[in-house]
Amino acid sequence: MRKYNIELIGYINTLENLSKVHVKDCFINRNGQLIFIVEQGEGGKAIGKNGDNIKRLGKILNKSIKIIEYNIDPIRFLNNIIYPIKSENIYIQDNEICIEIKSTQDKALLIGRDQKNLKEVQEIIIKYFPYKVVIK
C-alpha cells in the first residue's frame, strides 16, 4: 500500500471536493506534474466541462495537472495513461503489454529523453497490473 504525505492528501481532498469524484491514487511525476488516477467512469467528471475543474485546480495548487481514468482492463488503462498519443495497436503478449506506434514523433514523445516517459508509464502500470510495457 502506498503511503501519502500530508501534501498529497491535501491535493486529493481538493480534487475530490471540487469535482465530487473518488481519487484512486495521486503522485507527483519527475516533471513536477500532479497526476491523479480517478475511478473508472469518473474521468470526464474530474476534468469538468471544457476542462474547468483541471484549470481551476491548477490555479489553486499552482501545478500542472493530469487526470488518468483507471480501468480494470490493462489495455484501456494504458491507453488512458498515454493519451493524447495515439497507438495503432495495444496487446498483451506473455507478461508484456505491447504498444505499436507508427508515427516516429508519437513514439519519441512516448519514450522521452533517456526513456523517462516510458519509465513513468511502466511505474504506473506496474502498480496495478503485472505487465512490462514494450514499444514495438
Structure description:
- The chain has 136 residues and is of the alpha/beta class.
- The chain folds into 2 domains: 6-69, K homology (KH) domain (GMP Synthetase, Chain A, domain 3), CATH 3.30.300.20; 74-135, 2-Layer Sandwich (GMP Synthetase, Chain A, domain 3).
- The protein has 6 helices and 6 strands.
- It has helices spanning 6-19, 43-47, 52-61, 74-82, 104-111, 116-128; strands spanning 23-28, 34-38, 65-69, 89-93, 96-100, 132-135.
- The chain has a 3-stranded mixed sheet with strand order 1-2-3. Strands 4-5-6 form a 3-stranded mixed sheet, covered by helices on one side.
- The radius of gyration is 15 Å and the shape is globular.
- It starts with 5 loop residues before the first helix and ends with a strand.
Q: Could you give the topology of this structure?
A:
Blueprint: H1 6-19, E1 23-28, E2 34-38, H2 43-47, H3 52-61, E3 65-69, H4 74-82, E4 89-93, E5 96-100, H5 104-111, H6 116-128, E6 132-135
Task: Give short descriptive properties of this protein.
single chain, 136 residues, alpha/beta, GMP Synthetase, Chain A, domain 3, 2 domains, three-stranded mixed β-sheet, 22% strand, globular
